[in-house]
Amino acid sequence: MSARSTHKGFASSHAIPPNPTFIDFPRSDGDPSNWPLNTTPHIDSEGHVNYMRQAALDESLSIKWRVEVAAALASKLNMAQGNYALQGWPTGYQMFDHNKGPKDNPRHDAYLIGSTYAKRFRSVPEFIPHALWLLTDPALDRSNCNCKYCNKKPQREITASMNLLPKRGGSAPSAANTPTRTVQPPRLKRQPQQPKERLVRDQEKGSRDKERFRPYVGVRRMPKPVRQPAPKQSMLRERNSDLSCAYGPEVKVRRWFRDGELLWCALNTPIDGPSGPGGDDSIFFWPGLVEETRMKPTPIPKDADMDILDGPSNGHPSSNADSSNGDEEVPWIIRHDLSYKMKLLGISQSLYISDQLVLPYQSVAPSDELIQAIHAVSYEDLDPDPARTFAFNPYSTSSEVTFAKAAAPYGIALQIGANISGYWTPTDDWEFKFSVEYPNSGPPQSVSTFQSLDSVMNSSMAHNANLASSMATPSGSGSHTPSISASLPPLAPTQTIVQTRYQGLWWGAERIWTDELIRLKFSRGQIAPEGNDLINAPAGPSRKAQEYARSMGGQVGGAEGRGVFMRIEGLFVADPPSGRGSKVCHAVGTLYELVDEDWEEELDGREIVVNKGKGKAIENGNSNMDGLLELDGVPSGLSFMNGPSPLKPPPLANPDPAVSIESTTTDVLSHSNIAGASAPTAPPRDANSALSHPVLSAFPLPKAPDGFKFRPILKPGHEIVVDLTWIAGRYYPGLLEHRLLDRHVERALAAGGTQLWALEGLTAGCYNAMDPTKWKPTRTAMVREASHDARVGLEEHWKNKEKERQEAKLLEGTFLPPLPPSGMDSGEGGSGLGESSGAAAPGSTGNGQSFVNGKEERMELGVTEDGMLEEVAMAVD
Description:
By secondary structure, this protein is of the alpha+beta class.
């Protein structure tokens, strides 16, 4: 805090003590350029001032600092007893009196300004550690300074550690508080009492005894119980902000995209390709990274056109209009406009773009025609010079923005975006500690000496469930009071396990947080298609859907053909199932399927297998000895976490679009590693487990696609654990209704594509998924490496393509001209080609051989049916 006082306080008497020893600074980190510039008094319209006044060295304010700092320095340096004062300030330093407030009675704050490392010192205790560093460190190594600005510690800790607090001594004893001996008066000899006096005395004594032994009754304020300790880990502010803005029930304008995510930015004017305006080879979107978000309120007159109020189409992700709830007399309505500051890839441009002009990275892919058009641009027209590509601006209205000039920077941007989508990393780790109890006989022994964290947790939960059931009171037995004399069972040994958990995840182009809904790669029909003890069977079609299908003479399917959603409740690191290799990262949460909006549970005629095969293998799913569920076709212990990256999944089996998803179940699941961790009851959440599902921060599920609703498919008290490789990406409600996707939706409807439908879970997530395989610790490292690799790789690619073109052009001149048909003289006739038919090509010997750069090139030629020459083989010696 600054040393605040009135001007009268600054003018109070502070003088140099008699016979002082002056301390001078031999070195300094000061610079006069750091001094403030507002040193001239200026009275504003309200009669206030706000300026810095230089305090002279002999002023009372300066003397106070000089004496107190010098005394502390002498004490720290073990100097002889005496009076000390600073000779002056360190070179480049100056004491300032900050005058702020009414001109007749402003507030005064003292600041010592000039240090290169500290903007200002606000008090004597703040400057003492820095002054000590200036006196004792000849090298001025900042790491040796213990002030709050160099050491980054709170001033309270520094003051306490250096004993800078003023000593508080007790006052000297005075006559008022000096204890004195009280002289007792001499005791008088007791005189014999009369009988009446004795009776009165006995009555008084009896009443006092009765009063002494009366039971006490009183009313007092209820004492407050001891407050439980707060969670050791707090919810990340960025995570809370992103989830609240996307899923909060009271949010008017929803913000779906997060800082650092990769998006497509719609260009104001598309860059036309070689085929002309609006062609498939035109550039409509440019990839970019979100740098920040901005919400701008805009007042709109109430009599304005409602089309202006509505703004752009708001099918995704939110409404831009927000009516004011204030007085009806206010002649305007407030509209909140959300925009993103986008850093365009491949170039140096950053600009604010409306939330209605950006799309998720997975929603758009460059067309084959556009990629071919970029490859067709010659190396001279590409001009991939970094100085030119960095300066390119696709949002410029200049007529110089042509496809040829945009090809190189756009190609670089595409490659950077593709590289970024290949990285992943979990973020914001924290340690979760919990205890597991083993049976009295000791920890469970498995076939192998290795036990994974999952097996330890599940065996512990199974043991606790058996223990709870054995101790439960039998039905109808009434209350059960345990005998005190009965022997208590020995305490079960416990083991404390530390599990590394994470609050978020960078997954390719997207930022994923726990507590949000994501898409998985497999379809609903691939997870317990007949149902079992832990997972419900897929829901069938609703009654209305069945009636409509019968009226149309067709058939309708249920949820088995749609995608699967997962609400992430935790991200953690565990040992691989095999016990060998690097650790693996898992996601745990609840599964949901899409059912018809009017679907009802009791009307679904599908049979659900419940408690079938108990104690033995479960039909359509086997239970292993760790209590985990193994789905059909999933080999036990299979892991994808091998190699230098902690996550290197094999390529997911991509089903043929012509084949139904149900037919590909075995093939896709043969690569999987899914486990459903079961628990007899939902585990209680303590303070430290709040990050997996924060207390009082359970965000509601997002809106389901039109005509559908979400249905949980796991039995109560169960959760599923999956490898991260099964994550397809985020779910964006209402994305297919976005006006920028109208062109793509129409084509998908005409061509029967499934890529777009997977974004809303209408088909399996594997049709539109990210498959990152490279691990980097930070998003910055991902972007930096992606940009470097893209530029180096494309530069080499373009140079090789240009080299091939030059070689092809050079070889064109070495080919022989066409010969006339058989039976025709080489020097006569033939469609005006006779004059050149008999001549040898440049560089040719005329005998079927040619020379390129002095090397002999032999070509074996054959004759086709129409008499033209056909090249059979070529060899260059």
